[in-house]
Design goal:
This protein is of the alpha/beta class and 346 residues long. The protein folds into two domains: 208 residues, Isopropylmalate Dehydrogenase (3-Layer(aba) Sandwich); 126 residues, Isopropylmalate Dehydrogenase (3-Layer(aba) Sandwich), CATH 3.40.718.10. It is 42% helix and 18% strand. The chain is built from twelve helices and twelve strands. The strands form two sheets. A ten-stranded mixed β-sheet has the order 2-1-3-12-11-4-5-10-8-9, sandwiched between helices. The longest helix has 17 residues. It is globular. The structure holds (1R,2S)-1-hydroxybutane-1,2,4-tricarboxylic acid.
């Protein structure tokens, strides 16, 4: 049994996470979900976006499934919940998969998730403000190793995207990336971030595993989502040494919250990444999503008229029709857990 913390968040967060949980429960009963609260409401009560007690519990879980939260930039003292979680759980690697679901292609981005311009060492003074673009040897090595592993798994190479011609921190980062890749036997190509944005618009599919610093990775991955058709379908995993957090890349979308039309695919594919991480079979969800998208009615962000619920049910139906044996497996598992009595005549 795996233990997964769930933070649904606000806006469309709860709607899409409920959809993801439904899909997960339709293919495995090996996961138990535990719900936690976080965000602005918690901050108003306790002065922190998530309580220390909850963090203690979450650290003991196998994974976290996260929806979306609104981060107001004018609430004094408030710090983004997702950024807090990345730091508190030391989730140093952010893998973003931007799929073209209709043509079976994807853009893969590994964003360094713990330092760079998000080092948290910024300060405002009377007459200036400073952010620190921190690259440590440890940070650079571990993210380069992570990217190398992803590249190997995919029979691919790394494209390191940087501004080493100007930034001291990227010059340092670059040296370490090349060192680690040589050790790992992975090819590295490189590109300067500004001109790379043009490539990412015009010819996005052939860059292997794109590796970059925290803020560059943030911007590049948002840009790349234009090729997915909608930001609503893009999943991401934030990986640490002992735990990983999965979330759709989209935000809380307050304008459509509660209307039942949010695209659940980003959250559902995030759950698929989570199953892969846990050693369960996430590929089945990916396959089901692809075949649903090829023929099914989609949510309005993808030009359709479907509701969140309809898309979710459609994907679950695909899971069962792609793999009919599955129902038997589920049934036996339910029996084993004692949820269904073996003798139906009782
Ligand atoms: O996950 C993201 O890419 C978001 O843009 C966050 C970031 O900067 O990494 C911001 C999340 C937030 O505003 O709470």
């Amino acid at each position: 049994m795996y233990r997964v913390a769930v933070i649904k968040g606000d806006g469309i967060g709860p709607e899409v996470i409920n959809a993801a949980i439904e899909v997960v429960n339709s293919i495995t009963s090996k996961i138990r979900f535990y719900e936690f609260e976080g965000g602005v409401e918690v901050f108003k009560r306790y002065g922190v976006p998530i309580t220390e007690e909850d963090l203690e519990q979450i650290r003991k879980m196998d994974a976290v499934l996260f929806g979306a939260t609104t981060t107001p930039f004018d609430l004094p003292g408030y710090k983004s919940l997702i950024i807090t979680l990345r730091q508190e759980l030391d989730l140093y690697a952010n893998l973003r998969i931007i799929p073209d679901l209709r043509n079976g292609r994807e853009i893969v981005i590994v964003r360094e998730n713990s330092e760079g311009l998000y080092s948290g060492q910024g300060r405002a003074y009377e007459d200036k403000a400073v952010d620190v673009r921190l690259i440590t040897r440890r940070g650079a090595e571990r993210i380069a190793r992570f990217a190398a592993r992803i590249a190997k798994d995919r029979n691919s190479f790394i494209t390191f995207v940087h501004k080493a011609n100007v930034l001291t921190s990227d010059k340092y980062f670059r040296k370490i990336v090349f060192e680690v890749a040589r050790e790992e036997g992975v090819e590295v190509r490189e590109a300067i971030v500004d001109s790379f944005t043009i490539k990412l618009v015009r010819n996005p599919w052939n860059h292997g595993v794109i590796l970059s610093e925290n803020l560059f990775g943030d911007i590049l991955s948002d840009l790349a989502t234009i090729h997915a058709g909608s930001i609503g379908i893009v999943p991401t995993g934030n990986y640490g040494e002992n735990i990983a957090l999965f979330e759709p890349i989209h935000g809380s979308a307050p304008d459509i919250a509660g209307k039942g039309i949010a695209n659940p695919i980003g959250a559902i594919l995030s759950a698929a990444m989570m199953l892969d991480y846990l050693g369960l079979d996430g590929r089945r969800i990916w396959d089901a999503v692809r075949s649903y998208v090829a023929k099914g009615n989609l949510t309005p962000d993808m030009g359709g008229t479907a509701t969140t619920m309809e898309v979710t049910r459609g994907i679950i139906a695909e899971i069962h029709s792609l793999d009919p044996l599955d129902l038997d497996e589920m049934w036996m598992e339910e029996v084993r857990l004692g949820r269904i009595p073996l003798r139906m005549d009782e």
